[in-house]
From TrEMBL:
Native source organism of the sequence: Minutocellus polymorphus
Database matches in CDD domains: TST_Repeat_2 (cd01449)
Record-level GO cellular component terms: mitochondrion
Sample GO molecular function, one term: thiosulfate-cyanide sulfurtransferase activity
SUPFAM superfamilies reported in the protein's UniProt record: Rhodanese/Cell cycle control phosphatase (SSF52821)
Full protein name: Rhodanese domain-containing protein
Length: 351
């Protein structure tokens, strides 16, 4: 893939970025693209600083990578990283898609819209939100984004969003090389504050309705392998305790109603108090699971469910960060409470 390619029909440009640091506070205060003129500022750094900058390969095998890690990798090889904006807001009028289109954004970034790249229509008769796509749709969209299987993907979000792990899960489940798949721990705003390059001006985003999934794609994807449906979850609930445990990361909605036997580990307890885009350190994550009575390396199946298959991905990443190696025994219920709660025949409990 051409990771240096600008978004389709983009009117943005990349120019000198000497003023980035001076304008960072303005950007943070404004919280929108309105604080910027329609241009794109590229990163400027001294030759002395460039000498010891790590290559993007230094990110290999690391799911969680700091803003500094990403900056250094980008400075070493700007064409070696594909940035993917995963900003998405729950119960908010703010639109990550609109913010991306108007800018600013990271250089040559793509916007991954979980609501658009999803199973719809006759393949989703209950009209459930942002259901995982099949391999053909995902591959077709990767071709539209000019993303290849061997591209290094860095997923990021804007200040105030929290659900970037869902996009990580999407790429991982559809078969992208996990060694080249990363979650930036920190926001676009932090990147700017540290002098990182930004792209300004308007950009367009490919729409899933405009692609033909039946065509052979250059990108080679797989169907999600750790995703289960309601029937499978019903089986688990009926025989739970013997071979499985159910984890639910919802907040106050968990107390209102949840699956019998589900253990609550709120997703907000998984991230930093000061930055919702940063996971807590491994030791703190381990303490969360221990407090909930969850053995991360249990041989039992761990079934993950939430409101609509989004916040559940925080648990997916947290389990892996804590060393869970039984990926073949960890599953996400895609329909989650959006489906389970609407069914009259599904058992429900309240706290």
């Amino acid at each position: 893939g051409n990771s240096a390619a600008a978004p389709a029909n983009s009117t943005s440009r990349i120019e000198s970025a000497d003023m980035i640091s001076r304008r960072a506070l303005l950007f943070a205060a404004a919280g929108s693209a309105s604080a910027f003129r329609p241009r794109c500022w590229a990163l400027a750094f001294s030759s002395a600083a460039a000498k010891a900058v790590p290559h993007p390969a230094s990110l290999d095998g690391k799911t969680l990578v700091s803003v500094d890690d990403c900056l250094n990798a980008y400075r070493s090889d700007p064409s070696g990283i594909v940035f993917c904006d995963a900003s998405w807001y729950h119960r908010s009028a703010r639109s990550g898609r609109d913010d991306f289109i108007s800018g600013p954004r990271l250089p040559h970034a793509r916007y991954i819209d979980m609501d658009d790249i999803s199973t719809k229509g006759e393949n989703n008769p209950k009209n459930l939100p942002h259901m995982m796509p099949d391999k053909n749709l995902f591959a077709a969209m990767m071709d539209e984004f000019d993303i290849a299987n061997d591209d290094r993907i860095v997923i990021y979000g804007r200040d105030g969003c929290i659900f970037t792990p869902r996009t990580y899960f999407l790429f991982q489940q559809c078969g992208h090389d996990e060694n080249k798949l990363h979650l930036m721990q920190g926001s676009l705003e932090e990147w700017v504050e540290k002098g990182g390059a930004i792209e300004e001006g308007t950009a367009s985003i490919p729409n899933a309705d405009d692609v033909d999934p039946s065509k052979t794609a250059a990108y080679k994807a797989r169907d999600p392998v750790n995703v289960v449906d309601m029937e499978r979850m019903m089986e688990v609930v009926e025989r739970q305790g013997n071979d499985s445990v159910i984890l639910d990361p919802r907040g106050t909605s968990f107390d209102k109603a949840h699956m019998p036997g589900a253990v609550n580990i709120p997703y907000r307890s998984i991230v930093s108090d000061g930055d919702t885009l940063k996971f807590r350190p491994k030791e703190e994550l381990e303490a969360l699971f221990n407090k909930a009575g969850v053995d991360v390396n249990t041989e039992r199946k761990i079934m993950l469910t939430c409101g609509s298959g989004v916040s559940v991905c925080h648990l997916w990443v947290a389990l892996a960060e804590c060393g869970r190696e039984n990926a073949e025994k960890t599953f996400v219920y895609d329909g989650s409470w959006a489906e389970w709660g609407a069914e009259k025949t599904t058992p429900k409990l309240s706290t």
